[in-house]
Amino acid sequence: MQTDKKKKDWKAEIRKGVNKLRTKDNWVKYLKTQAAFHDYSFGNCVLIWSQRPCATRVAGYQTWKKLGRQVRKGSKSIKILAPMLKKKKGLEEQDSFFFRAVSVFDIADTEGEDLPKVTLDCVKAENPESLLWRLQRFAQEDSEARVPVTFEEDTGKALGYYSPREHRIAINRNLHATRQATVLAHEIAHSILHRKDDEVAKDHSCSFKELEAESVAYIVATHFGFEMGDNSFGYILSYNSDQDEFEKHLKVSGERIAKCAKAIIQGVRKDA
């Protein structure tokens, strides 16, 4: 068994990874990892991205065996943090959770039987309306925000907007369906994460709110095979000069982004 001295502090590795996300290129690469592993936490996606940026599907050694695939000899594992239950003795003691580093391997490091292809016929990049109406359904029926969506001729200088005061989303009706879908995903994120602006404003600047909404939209679009195009990640990430404050806010935002994107992706997949 490894001694505590020899154990790597993987939480510290997450902090190092977060600090690397200050550049636009690295942030976009992380978002692609989060899109591929939308069920994973922000911290674990940072660990996967830091160790294996090109990973597409990961699993433990025994899981790969059950799937008919064998990890190649000499393959380097990827470490992620898994929750563990610690049993405490005594009637008055309660069980407690802790996190332990576990090893997983990317599919590229395995060989064996082909895995069944998982297709999502309900959403296709060549049919952007399929994503658009499912996002609209999620916004109006399934999200915690339950926000109405309208398509309007004039949305001002913006392609769309979310109004916290009126609690509604408006999307420019003249946009292509693909752009409408990505803008809608952005505004849904605002409606979920920033509806109570007074609470958010204490710890989150406007730049981080935009980072959160645009990142959620990027994850959702990428997950379903849609292109987001240009974005303002570079400007937002370079806006904050205080490294400690930036790291703290980025970690908080990362966790919020991952949770929100997961909820939207699951909502889109509903009944698929």
The span between the termini is 45 Å
Radius of gyration: 20 Å
Largest beta sheet: strand ordering = 1-4-3
Work out the number of β strands.
8
> What profile does the largest beta sheet have?
3 strands, antiparallel
Q: Give the count of helical stretches.
A: 10
What is the percent of helical residues? 40-55%
Overall outline? globular
List unreliable stretches of 5+ residues. Answer: 1-6, 198-203
* Share in β-strands: 15-25%
Please state the average pLDDT score. Answer: 86
Structural class: alpha+beta
| H-E order | HHHEHEEEEHEEEHHHHH
What does this structure look like?
- Helix content is 47%, strand content 15%.
- The chain has helices spanning 10-20, 24-36, 42-51, 61-66, 128-142, 177-193, 197-200, 206-223, 233-238, 243-269; strands at 58-59, 69-71, 78-86, 96-106, 110-112, 149-152, 160-163, 168-172.
- Strand 7 and strand 8 form a beta hairpin.
- Helix 2 (24-36) crosses helix 8 and helix 8 packs parallel to helix 10.
- It is α+β, with helices and mostly antiparallel strands and 272 residues long.
- The chain contains ten helices and eight strands.
- The strands form three sheets. The chain has a three-stranded antiparallel sheet.
Question: Which keywords apply here?
Answer:
15% strand, 272 residues, 8 strands, globular, alpha+beta, three-stranded mixed β-sheet, single chain, three-stranded antiparallel β-sheet
